[in-house]
Design brief:
Pfam families: DUF6891. This is DUF6891 domain-containing protein. The chain is an alpha+beta fold. The chain has 2 domains: 4-68; 76-177, no CATH class. 53% of the residues lie in helices and 16% in strands. Strands 1-2-3-5-4 form a 5-stranded mixed β-sheet, sandwiched between helices. Strand 1 (92-98), helix 5 (101-110) and strand 2 (116-121) form a beta-alpha-beta unit. Helix 1 (8-24) packs across helix 3, helix 1 (8-24) packs across helix 6 and helix 2 packs across helix 3. It starts with 7 loop residues before the first helix and ends in a 9-residue tail after the last strand. The mean pLDDT is 95.
Length: 186
């Protein structure tokens, strides 16, 4: 079954999923393949998975390569990686592209003397790919959310802004404005 035979809506949704999975830059080819295979089996059970999934990935990679040719040498995700590395060097636990807050909490609880936790989920990254805004969650070592005016929050906001990553604290999370231009190798 070709992509056209899937129906316009299903084909668009599967292409969109392939796009965010590939552009996230965190999943390897096996992870992208597994997620797309699950989606195809659920949304298009009569589709030929062995053909459709590689085609979706290859098209997403080709589109990404075309876009990446116009990107600056240092991108927003590169600057974000620098901020996250600095936070780790200061004793914060950083969890990238996690499935949910439970998984992030487990990493925090396993850490020796953490100063806090900064994390974002896979769906946060997908939102950044499509809309240019990444949500960072920041917790104290006891898993309490940071609050306005706290030094931990202010230090993170300052660091983000110094790296040309506009950020505001809103409703318990930091909203970072970032063009999601992560270079990907699958």
């Amino acid at each position: 079954m070709t992509e056209q035979a899937l129906g316009e809506r299903t084909a668009r949704e599967l292409r969109g999923l392939a796009r965010v999975l590939v552009r996230s830059g965190y999943a390897d080819r096996a992870g992208v393949t597994a997620a797309l295979t699950e989606a195809v089996r659920e949304d298009a059970p009569s589709a030929e998975v062995a053909t459709l999934v590689p085609d979706l990935i290859d098209q997403a990679l080709a589109d990404l390569a075309e876009d990446a040719a116009t990107w600056p040498v240092v991108t927003g995700p590169d600057r974000l990686d620098s901020v996250l590395a600095e936070l780790e060097s200061l004793g914060l636990v950083v969890v990238r592209y996690t499935s949910d807050h439970h998984a992030a909490r487990a990493v925090l609880e396993a850490a020796a003397e953490p100063k806090g936790l900064v994390f974002f989920t896979d769906t946060d990254v997908w939102h950044a790919v499509d809309f240019g805004m990444l949500e960072l969650k920041v917790w104290h070592p006891d898993t309490a959310n940071v609050a306005p005016g706290e030094p931990l929050l202010e230090d993170i906001l300052t660091l983000l802004r110094e790296r040309d990553l506009p950020a505001v604290f809103d409703e318990g999370r930091i909203e970072v404005t970032v063009d999601w231009q992560r270079r990907v190798t699958l």
